[in-house]
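Dear all,

This email documents one entry for the complex benchmark we are building for the journal club exercise. For each entry we list the sequence lines for every component of the assembly. Then comes the predicted three-dimensional structure of the complex as a token string, followed by one or two observations. Please use this as the template for your own entries, and keep the labels exactly as they appear.
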Amino acid sequence: MNKKILSVFLAFVMVFTAFSPAYAQTAENAWNSYWETADAKAGIIMFPGADDSQRNFSWYSDSESVPEIVLSEKSDMSGSASFSGYSVETYSGNYANKVTVTGLEAGKTYYYRCKTDNYVSSVYSFETDSDDSFTAVYMTDIHVSFDEKNPDSVRDTSYNFDLTLNKALETDDDISLILSAGDQASEGLECEYIGMSASPVVKSIPMATTIGNHDRKGVDYKTFSNMPNEGDHAVSSYVGSDCYFVKNNVLFLVMDSNNASGVDHRNFVKAAVKENPDVDWKVMMFHHDLYGGRIPHRESENALLRILWAPIADEFGIDLVLLGHSHYYTVSNVMYNNKTVATLTNGATVKDPDGTVYMVSGSLNRPRDDEDISLGENVGIEYLTMDKIYNLIDFTEETLTVRSYAIESNVCFSSFTIEKSDADGGHSDRMPPLYNFIIRFIGSVYAVFNNIGVYNDLKDKGYDVNFFELLFG
Ligand SMILES: [Fe+2]
Ligand SMILES: [Fe+2]
């Protein structure tokens, strides 16, 4: 009996301390000390590789050298192999080091160090999945923010990202992929990307990033990103690109929605889908919101984006589209041809849907509390909070389940499941209407003119960018 009382008391103490301001203060103090270390300042981040047998690494240094990842299956780094890469000069004159590690086997733990001329990092580890089922965490609009009036702004907004990742790991310590739907940084600055990459979690779990409109406020996303399978486009994206990767049984299409070139995006998706005919799931991720529509002045922009992007999701049978930009949590109904084909409610399972679910999560550092809310007519689930949200996506062969959490309570507030009896599920082979051909073409022409606007904006901010490179890549 006494034992029982003692264990209840200890459990109470643990829960109490975990939620007490003193505990939060200790965690933040630990972050502030860690912030000053060489590893935090190097901004080491692991991106997904082209498939699960690869990982892409990136980190910063102040001199040029041939960077290396030293990899071992032992924590003492014995029997290590070395993979070398290349470095690119960043806009500020530092170097971003890029290395791809290949030949990884399933179900293993690997240990690594990053090496450049004057720098050797601590040893970090990562795991490869042992079977097809896995869990990813999706979040968006991280908005690590440089503010010249607040010298701690990058450190503090980076802490919020690390905190959210750790809350997600408390819920599920088996997460093997991080998905971020754009606006990682508020000003698109190198210091913001280094800050975000300071989190130890992104050194052990690969993080896929998408370019958002805020990432295009500067030029540094271009040297920060090391995503695999970048697309080759007729209309230049300059700082971003479409990319894809395969993780187990899922094809992830990571798109640059700043670029309106519909012709390029459709060609890219068509080729990626053709290359990977055996996947069970197709997930697309890009920044701009389509169906959330909760900010009235953005509705006209959303409407234009819908006629550009939805036909691509329809044509290629995309199961789930992960978005950002609105800073509001919404999940659409099952959509086809811009219309609800099946409603989606909290806790529901949709079986073999003949369409796509579009989801937007809230912003980590810039949550909204606007009174002026107008819900899109196709929204199935919505949740308004000033808290930080993360979403766990469980993939199995037959099911894809999304569970959403706000970190203060860390209790699941919304979930839904897509279930398919085979890889095509209920997706039909209907082709989008012929006029989409014309819309895609208009989008590409618009993208060229939009790039002129981007060039002028960057010039106004004092960036020295090459006009022809920006226009034609
Ligand atoms: Fe944003
Ligand atoms: Fe945005």
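Observations: Residues 53-127 form a domain with the Immunoglobulin-like fold (CATH 2.60.40). The two ends are 73 Å apart (CA to CA).
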